[in-house]
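Per-record layout

source: Ectopseudomonas guguanensis
name: Linoleoyl-CoA desaturase
length: 360
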Amino acid sequence: MTTRLDRELSPAELEAFGQELDALRQRTLADLGEADARYIRRVRAAVRGCCWTGRALLMLGWFPPTWLLGTLLLGLGKILENMELGHNVMHGQYDWMNDPEFAGRQYEWDIVGPADFWRHTHNHVHHTYTNVLGMDDDVGYGVVRLFPEQRWKPFYRWQPLWVTIQALLFQYAVAIQHLRLDKLVKGRISKEEVKPLARRFGAKLARQWVKDYLAFPLLALLLGANALAVLTGNLVANLLRNLWTFLVIFCGHFTEKATVFAPEILEGETRGHWYLRQLRGSSNLSGGPLLHILTGNLSHQIEHHLFPDLPARRYAELAREVRLIARRYGQHYNCGTLWGQFATVLRRIWIYRLPATGTA
């Protein structure tokens, strides 16, 4: 079930392919040190600086350019926290530092979804079963048909609308994903199994809403500032973060040359097979350092899927070697510009809304 032409590898080639990538991973692990620790601490400082400066500017109200600049800085801080700090720390990329603030299993991020939800649905399920139909819930997130191999359902006709709503509310979408409401509706799990998860989601949701939409606006009132300016600034900052996260994730997984797989591929899957599946199911974005930082280095989605527990700041240098390895083994290395890749995602969303473009 591929959507591009890659050379099929013999068992011996697959073993060698896996060994080369294992060796690359081990060399990088052995080289981790103070430069990596210093980098993530600087990211944390940048997040704090952007967020607090943005919130302070919002206290000055609508007066140009304070509201616009404050909102953009707060949005930037939330994007950096979500992408380059939270996501990467929760993968355990900095556990070797033995610093509780950067411990992958303890970090709690600034979105409505509890971190433990993400650690299961993303770190475990998605990264184990990447692009395997019926196993990886990230393929369309249950509401979007992006590949002809996905069985068509009538509600896919309106998926341009569903995906627009999903983009605007992306932090809620990835949180609700863990509740497995689809299984509840189908009777595969009980309400009693969902209730404790729903309570945890509700508690985190309440904390986030109180912080952004109650506490800071009330603080503005106490200080004699414009509470409405603060409220709307927080709302728009969260919206910017949602849209950017959606854009990066969809461009990393659902482009024209990304591949999905039948569950049978997991039977007897070796390390080499697993690496090959990550390579074929991922898409990179070309660009400069700013793009890479703002995406949490998920602009190197291929390298992230190959080495999720390596510090993401290393992906750019790893990409050069991974590209060469892929070329030696006759494999396509899927890389393109942000807007070029997103155009192919939009094309998939539009084309596969209809049953005539796939299996009904």
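summary: The longest strand covers residues 284-286. The beta strands are 284-286, 335-337.
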